[in-house]
Amino acid sequence: MNDLLKTQLGAFIDLTPATEHLIESCFKHRVVKKNEVLVAQGSIAKHLYFVVKGCLRVFMVDDAGNESTRFLILPGRFGTAFPSFILKEPSAAVVQSLEPTELLLLSYEDRERLNREVPGWETMSRKQVELEYINSIRRIESLITMKSVDRYQLLLKSNPDIVERLPARIIADYLGISQETLSRLKNQKSIE
Amino acid sequence: MNDLLKTQLGAFIDLTPATEHLIESCFKHRVVKKNEVLVAQGSIAKHLYFVVKGCLRVFMVDDAGNESTRFLILPGRFGTAFPSFILKEPSAAVVQSLEPTELLLLSYEDRERLNREVPGWETMSRKQVELEYINSIRRIESLITMKSVDRYQLLLKSNPDIVERLPARIIADYLGISQETLSRLKNQKSIE
Q: Which of A159, A175, B85, B168 has its CB 3.0 to 4.6 Å from that of B45, i.e. a possible disulfide?
């Protein structure tokens, strides 16, 4: 089993050989190139993705064709176009690789099977969704109440490397600010 | 057991007399007046609230003293200042009753106990948090991409009664628009 996945699971699940075998039989391995679309807008997200290496971006496209990044799925994390995956409805969001990316794929049915059959899996699932929910609450809070400088500093604090690693266009978009504002924030220590 | 709670649980849990007894022993009943603060900013949210009657509002206050509504907890729903409740950290948000409200209170420890001991409870917990997470994703999407008219129509569709029931100030604030814009939206059938 992949080491990163093993570390994630180990905190919640007693990984006996039989359990490991069942879990491994549920995941599919996939390597994608940069900018590959995994879930298109209007299609149904059939998988939950565990990122082994690289990065996925979940973003929206409005009627005018403007993209806005909803979130990023970094190595060691599970993610997908969640509303589409859970409710089996056409996705409002697009899932795309930002870099060459290595993934483990879990279908809805296999996820439900692991929730039912592997002791500890459902507790892990619940706690992961609780933390994703908390992240999304913080995102809402930052969109509602924070100034762009505070949002930038929150991102720097929670994900120090991605600000340097990803294109400025994606970061600016994620923060809901212009690229000019982002570059001003990067170059200044404080701003009103 | 309260009928509304029984309906909520019945879909996931086999309510034997012993299970019902255990569940009832974990909930505390409380009636609060209008505008009562249940979780103050900076305090720790000690309970998950099940609303039997009335309505709770979860809102933020920024440094300038401006309030912004994060969400509303309506009858038949569980909710609280979730990040504070789960992470046991000081709450960024305030939880307050908007009307005279009847509640059932569940502590963190009792919730974990029910997750461990009542078959089906953790599946219900997980699926509820999944739906709350989906709602918060939609909220983020609407804050990022939607025009005020779309946000207003989404609210009308998902909660038709609250637009009439609650003060315009709260609704405008929830939608991130001015009261003037809200009253224009209420009076117009379409707007660019």
A: B85
The 10s digit of each residue's pLDDT in B116-164 is: 999 999 999 999 999 999 988 888 877 776 666 777 877 777 777 777 7
Is B191's pLDDT higher than 60? Answer: no
Among B145, B158, B170, B175, the strongest candidate for a mutation testing the A interface, having the largest count of A CBs within 10 A, is B145
- A137 and B60: CB-CB below 8 Å? no
Quote the ipTM score: 0.78
Res B161: pLDDT: 72
Q: Which residue of B has its CA nearest to A64?
A: B145
Which among A62, A138, A143 is the nearest to B143, CB-wise? A143
Between the CA of residue A26 and those of A47, A91, A118, B86, B183, what are the distances in Å?
11, 23, 12, 30, 52
Using a CB–CB cutoff of 8 Å, tell me whether B99 touches chain A.
no
Selection from B4, B93, B73 nearest residue A144 by Cα: B93
Q: How far apart are CA B184 and CA B88, in angstroms?
A: 42
Cβ atoms of residues A86 and A79 within 8 Å: no
Q: What does the pLDDT look like over A86-97, one tens digit per residue?
A: 999 999 899 999
Question: Alpha carbon of B158 to those of B33, B71, B135, B151, B153: distances in Å?
Answer: 26, 13, 10, 11, 9
